[in-house]
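Hey, resending since the last one bounced:
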Amino acid sequence: MKKLFRQLHLWLSIPLGLVITVICFSGAMLVFEKEITECVQHDIYFVEEVKNSPLPIDSLISNVAPTLNKDVSITGITVSSDPERCYKVNLSKPRRAAIYVDQYTGEVKGSSSRLPFFNTMFRLHRFLLDKRDANGGVFWGKQIVGISTSLFVVILITGIILWWPKSKKAWKNLVTIRLRSGWKRFLYDLHVVGGMYAIVFLLAMALTGLTWSYPWYRNAFYSLFGVEQSVQKNNTKEAYANKSVRKTNNNAVDAEKVSESQSPYLYWQDVYEFVAQENSDYKQITISNGSVNVSFNRIGNQRASDSYKFDNRTGRVTDHTYYSDNNKRNKLRGWIYSVHVGSWGGMVTRILAFMAALLGATLPLTGYYLWIKRLYKKNKK
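The structure tokens again:
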């Protein structure tokens, strides 16, 4: 049986090794994309000087609106708990577009954009730089990534079986990468010991990553955690259906006294202040047309958030949905992302995920070395 696992481990690794290296390396490069991007484009993301109080949200939006094309509209604004971070004004298009504005001066700092390096890394990680066929043909890059990731799981499991220690001495050898025993021994330890160190994170990243490759796998994965496959994405109205009103803004203006021609952003500042007061430990608050999303800087699902609804004509908060009341599908989707990128445990797990992905990128290369070395010895004999 062990011979079979050895053959599986070898003959799956040989044709897929370089693809796995590219996927793991590009994934590692994306772990700290946000921090590096904000460092490179610091003037866009951060204010020049923190002052006593920021300008009202509707005033800031009025500064941004004239800079936009006629076919682009403002869909929301994101306020960070960090007073040094600029407000993020979200736009209707292109997808995920935003403009950053200094909340103390009203100055439009600029638009965010993905750095070319990270754009390349993302396309490598997901599609091997391939593009979707406009005529509906096979998306080969995505298919190759999906197949390689699936078989990478098999390679990792067979590797555990092959090198699982059977004695205390073997356990000791398995936790030590020897640096003074020559580069040949170092490469062997990097493959075996390094692989064992990274195995949990690599399996977690591979198994969660497959949910973006295959709809059937995603449905099976969700079913495994008790999520009904028939559950579809809820729109804002459905998400709050049958929810009781838990918080109400008593300072709202009567709807009958409000002109229909008023600015749709008139009460966004009042709504923000009310929600911020209710959630003193928030990470960021995003306000859009009639809804508010509150995220927190906590361990676990990094996409977990509480939600509010408000009347855009009056500023009256009408509903509040806690993350704990959210449906299982939305929760699981957030957990899948958090586990895949390693953010579920904060900076510690992100660093570990980065190191595991880098080790994953070296495993095929060191594996090739061990295989070629074995072939050389056989031929020499």
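The CA atoms of residues 5 and 161 lie 8 Å apart.

Sorry for the duplicate.
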